[in-house]
Amino acid sequence: MDEIKIYRGALTASEVLTEFNRGSALVMGTLSTSTNSRTAESASSEYCIPGDTSTCDPPVARWDFNEKSGQTAYDSSGNGNNGTLGANSSAGSDDPSWTIGKKGAGLSFDGSNDYVIVSDSNSLDITNSITIMGWFKLNLLQNYQHILAKRQGTNCQLRL
Fold first, then answer.
1. CA pair distance 62, 60, nearest whole angstrom
2. Who wins on pLDDT, 68 or 159?
3. In which region does residue 150 sit, left (phi positive, over 0), alpha (psi from -120 to 50) or beta (all else)?
4. Do 32 and 53 meet the contact criterion of CB atoms below 8 Å apart?
């Protein structure tokens, strides 16, 4: 699993294509241009549709999994949705392992009990359409496996 992003709302096919072309082997210049045709700053316009800076909606959560060690998967969206590998900050059998990902590092799950847990936050309370994107490789698909789940009730949390 690598490069997981959650967007509030459904992205169009064109927006998904643009998103997955980011980080390709050859990138020249910046990611977009401003409405006055001047080159925009890449970092500040990372989530803009090329040529349109009016729709720069960043994801509500983004885990790149490039830490390569430790018990925390940091959220780079700015919303603080950091995840803990397994049940707590101590290493355990329910922790996914750090591995090589599609882009940089990634996480490998054993298919039985590994997970990343993210505490509930207002930014993850999405009630309408949603887009979840990332890189996944399944070795085997079994009954009731999920890539992402949000639990309800007294212990609301997001599980990857």
1. 7
2. 68
3. beta
4. yes
Q: Where are the domains of the chain?
A: 61-159
Give φ, ψ of 150 to 5 degrees. Answer: -115, 120
CB 40 within 8 A of CB 32: yes
Q: Which residue has the higher pLDDT, 36 or 68?
A: 68
Kindly report whether the global pTM for this prediction surpasses the value 0.85.
Answer: no
Core vs surface per residue 102-135: b (16+ CB within 10 A) or e: eeebbbebeeeebbbbbeebebbeeeeebbebbe
DSSP 14: H
Using a pLDDT cut of 90, give the percent of the chain over it: 23
> For the chain, what is the radius of gyration of the CA atoms?
17
What lies within 8 Å, CB to CB, of 142 at 6+ separation is 111
Which helix or strand (DSSP H or E) is residue 17 part of? helix 13-21
Dist. CA 113–CA 87, nearest whole Å: 10
To which H or E segment does residue 19 belong?
Answer: helix 13-21
